[in-house]
Amino acid sequence: MKTNLFLTAALSLSFCLASTAQTLPAYLPADGLVGWWPFNGNANDESGDNFNLFNTGANLHPDRFGNNNQSYWVGNGGSLTYTGPSITGGESFTYSFWMKTNQNLNEFQDWIFSEDGENENGIPTGIWFFFNPFSKNLGIVHPAVSYAGILSCPFPGIDEWHHVVVEGPVSYRVYIDGQLASTGGSQ
Fold first, then answer.
1. What is the pTM of this model?
2. What distance in Å separates the CA atoms of residue 123 and residue 144, rounded to the nearest whole number?
3. Residue 28 has pLDDT above 70, yes or no
4. Helix ranges restricted to H, 20-153
5. Which of 37-41, 98-102, 147-151, 162-166 has the lowest mean pLDDT?
6. Which of 23, 47, 143, 168 is a plausible cystine mate for 36, CB 3.0–4.6 Å?
């Protein structure tokens, strides 16, 4: 079963999506949709599954269209985290989000999003996304596989919005702006 997770996030380092609605918009694939975070002033999941994110110091920011409070700045210690039952359950998944980076970061790496779920056997099934401002790489960590990271790929531009899609977990693929950017790792 393929799981679609739409974080549609923007990263300045910010996380974003531009949409406000209580019902799902027509452009979202309802079949298999597990989570959708439009960031319309909060980090709540509006898919109906209640996978709300915990905000640890991330600040609301304008999204890629300039709409205020529609994305999150997650740099310099801020992050969005989900803790609870596993979102993906270790099944195939797709995360899709918008991301923008800047160079005004003072940390080794900035956590973008982390899902710290476990399956019914207590095995970690989460995934963590981070950005390294020094190497300009987007990184992915799957705690059940390796805390050192599954893969890392160069991020194409500073102060520009890019669409990122990550598929996994059997073989990870990262697409940036529709182009395959990296493959590797496995569960």
1. 0.76
2. 7
3. yes
4. none
5. 147-151
6. 47
Distance CA 10, CA 22 (A): 20
The angle subtended at Cα 62 by Cα 60 and Cα 65, nearest 5°, is 150
Q: How many other CB atoms sit within 10 Å of the CB of residue 118? A: 18
How is the chain split into domains, by residue range? 3-184
CA distance 18 to 111: 21
| Percent of the chain residues past pLDDT 70, beyond the cut | 68
Identify the CA nearest to 75 among candidates 34, 104, 118: 104
What is the radius of gyration, based on Cα positions, of the chain? 15
Surface-to-core class of residue 51, CB atoms within 10 Å of its CB (0-12 exposed, 13-18 middle, 19+ buried): buried
| Confidence at residue 125, expressed as pLDDT on a 0 to 100 scale | 63
Structure tokens at 86: 């596993």
Cα dihedral 12, 20, 78, 185 sign: negative
Pairing status of strand 127-132 against strand 110-115: antiparallel
Candidates 3.30.70, 2.60.120, 1.10.3470, 1.25.40; CATH matching 3-184:
2.60.120
